[in-house]
């Protein structure tokens, strides 16, 4: 089925005409997950977002389906177990998106270090057991100092003890969102981007029964009636709750800003993702990750009080990351002029929860006695001298001080919150990208129960652990082989191996639909056939309305293919103008908007 600008018009008309069972406000990863599960259960589902899908937060992550190894520093085993188990579920329902990519963790002998060589091995062994990592290609191992430097000769040698290698997964965050959205639309959900909720509506009994919304493309204001409304707007959760004039709700969110910078791999060469302490004894760690002939690094973690719609990278952000990376790679000498692209995003953290953030949070300090007990029992367990129950008994009785560190934004919890206001508005907030399916499952169960209790509507939920997203209908146990077969079909139709592989990796089982476009399309002026196919698929099947949607969230051109972007931006706009029949004035407007986004990513103002 198509999922295009025409679909958007139809969805708006449908939402205006009938009462929904569930209206979702927010089209990031959380709202997308809720939409998939609700629509698959047969609920009349609608979703609106005031921007493009994933534009606000879910395209601005570290782009990992992260396992949370550093939680084991404070032996927060439950968090790690939940995270790695859920990561396996995400890989199963979207096998073409998360890809295994072992992580290197250099260990330095310095004050405040997260791990030493002994504790990192204990942590990695426990991590592998929790994640059920048994494939010898991905089980953890230690490296001596010389072996670490052989892999990454640019790394800081001083105080380097060695390193550990453990399994992690790279991710395409925006693709994960759009594939959930497309599956929801395929199952009947009415979905429209660039539609903003302006007022929460109530019935005569004072219960929420919809929203007044505005189509930001046409200026039309209209009502959407829905039995239930759920707020999944991430950092904007408090803003949406403020639209509910019947409720006086306290602020819930404490968003923090994370920044990532991209350089050419020739300037900073790393063979695999690398994760290390900042060296500032601040309890935080930094990622350095190779991707598509580039290397990106981050992240910062600072309280944010600015414009939520347009978080920006500041000079302080750049200086902070460059100082750390240049210290850990002392011969590289990166400057701001080396930065090819960047992004800033907000994390939807909940202020009231104690706990640890993936990037430096502290669940509390263990006493020396408790720490020694844990090391002892885990060591015995590895020697088969203690049972799993012995380990769990020690872990459940740790002496620690748990409290939120108000001065440290990194200590704010990545936990989620599912709340229902007195007038019925549901808010699902917080959480990590890795947990999106599990969060959505809890919310949809609540929706199911309320629809049954309050409206006598009965629905049977799907098993969302086994329900693939759009493009995910391939065997998760044989991803590489299946994608190779899909790529081979493209090669047989005349594409180069590189182009066919690129398309297969991006679209998974949907690649056949992309190939089908070859029967009716030729390469557009200034574009390769691969680029033309990708663009038209994005227009016809992924509700791509603007060039920036294509260059950032449907593909990674803006972030990781910056050196090719200048050559194809005008041809893409020309082709989109032909498709949408834009006027010359509209073409100029779209180019101006794209150029502004590129300049912001380029850090043009700072340079």
TrEMBL record:
Residues 465-587 form the Alpha-glycerophosphate oxidase C-terminal domain. Residues 21-351 form the FAD dependent oxidoreductase domain. GO terms for molecular function: glycerol-3-phosphate dehydrogenase (quinone) activity; glycerol-3-phosphate oxidase activity. Keywords: FAD, Flavoprotein, Glycerol metabolism, Membrane, Oxidoreductase, Transmembrane, Transmembrane helix. Its cofactor is FAD. SUPFAM superfamilies: FAD-linked reductases, C-terminal domain, FAD/NAD(P)-binding domain. It catalyses: sn-glycerol 3-phosphate + O2 = dihydroxyacetone phosphate + H2O2. Gene3D superfamilies: Alpha-glycerophosphate oxidase, cap domain, D-Amino Acid Oxidase, subunit A, domain 2, FAD/NAD(P)-binding domain. Signal peptide: none annotated. Belongs to the FAD-dependent glycerol-3-phosphate dehydrogenase family. This is Alpha-glycerophosphate oxidase. It comes from Pisciglobus halotolerans.
């Amino acid at each position: 089925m198509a999922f295009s600008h025409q679909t958007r018009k139809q969805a708006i008309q449908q939402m205006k005409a009938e009462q929904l069972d569930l209206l979702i406000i927010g089209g990031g990863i959380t709202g997308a997950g809720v939409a998939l599960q609700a629509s698959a259960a047969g609920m009349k589902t609608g979703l609106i977002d005031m921007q493009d899908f994933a534009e606000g937060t879910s395209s601005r992550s570290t782009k990992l389906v992260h396992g949370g190894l550093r939680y084991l520093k404070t032996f927060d085993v439950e968090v790690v177990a939940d995270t790695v188990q859920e990561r396996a579920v995400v890989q199963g329902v979207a096998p073409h998106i998360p890809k295994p990519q072992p992580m290197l963790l250099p260990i330095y002998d310095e004050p405040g270090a997260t791990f030493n060589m002994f504790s990192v091995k204990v942590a990695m062994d426990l991590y592998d057991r929790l994640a059920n990592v048994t494939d010898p290609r991905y089980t953890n191992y230690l490296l001596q100092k010389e072996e670490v430097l052989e892999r990454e000769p640019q790394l800081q040698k001083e105080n380097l003890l060695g390193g550990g290698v453990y399994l992690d997964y790279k991710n395409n965050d925006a693709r994960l969102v759009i594939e959930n959205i497309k599956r929801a639309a395929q199952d009947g959900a009415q979905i429209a981007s660039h539609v903003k909720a302006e007022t929460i509506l109530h019935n005569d009994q004072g219960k929420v029964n919809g929203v007044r919304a505005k189509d930001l493309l046409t200026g039309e204001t209209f009502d959407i009636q829905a039995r239930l409304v759920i707020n999944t707007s991430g950092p904007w959760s408090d803003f949406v709750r403020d639209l509910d004039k019947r409720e006086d709700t306290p602020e819930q969110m404490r968003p923090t800003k994370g920044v990532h910078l991209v350089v050419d791999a020739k300037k900073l060469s790393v063979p695999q993702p690398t994760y290390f302490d900042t060296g500032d004894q601040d309890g935080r760690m930094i990622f350095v990750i190779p991707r598509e002939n580039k290397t990106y690094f981050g992240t910062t973690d600072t309280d944010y009080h600015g414009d939520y719609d347009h978080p920006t990278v500041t000079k302080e952000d750049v200086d902070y990351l460059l100082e750390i990376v240049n210290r850990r790679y002392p011969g590289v000498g990166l400057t701001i002029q080396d930065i090819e692209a960047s992004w800033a995003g907000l994390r939807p953290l909940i202020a009231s929860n104690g706990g640890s953030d993936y990037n430096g949070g502290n669940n509390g300090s263990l006493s020396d006695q408790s720490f020694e007990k844990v090391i002892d029992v885990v060591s015995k367990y590895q020697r088969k001298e203690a049972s799993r129950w012995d380990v769990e008994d020690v872990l459940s009785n740790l002496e620690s001080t748990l409290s939120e560190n108000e001065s440290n934004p990194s200590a704010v919890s990545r936990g989620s919150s599912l709340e229902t206001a007195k007038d019925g508005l549901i808010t699902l907030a917080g959480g990590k990208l890795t947990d999106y399916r599990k969060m959505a499952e809890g919310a949809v169960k609540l929706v199911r129960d309320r629809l049954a209790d309050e409206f006598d509507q009965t629905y049977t939920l799907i098993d969302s652990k086994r329900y693939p997203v759009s493009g995910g209908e391939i065997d998760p146990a044989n991803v590489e082989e299946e994608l190779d077969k899909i790529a081979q079909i493209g090669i047989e139709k005349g594409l180069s191996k590189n182009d066919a592989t690129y398309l297969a990796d991006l679209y998974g089982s949907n690649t056949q639909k992309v190939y089908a476009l070859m029967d009716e399309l030729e390469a557009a002026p200034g574009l390769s056939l691969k680029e033309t196919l990708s663009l038209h698929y994005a227009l016809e099947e992924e509700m791509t309305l603007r060039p920036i949607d294509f260059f950032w969230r449907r593909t990674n051109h803006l972030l990781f293919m910056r050196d090719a972007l200048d050559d194809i931006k005008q041809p893409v706009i020309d082709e989109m103008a032909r498709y949408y029949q834009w006027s010359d004035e509209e073409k100029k407007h779209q180019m101006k908007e794209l150029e502004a986004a590129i300049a912001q990513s380029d850090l043009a103002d700072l340079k």
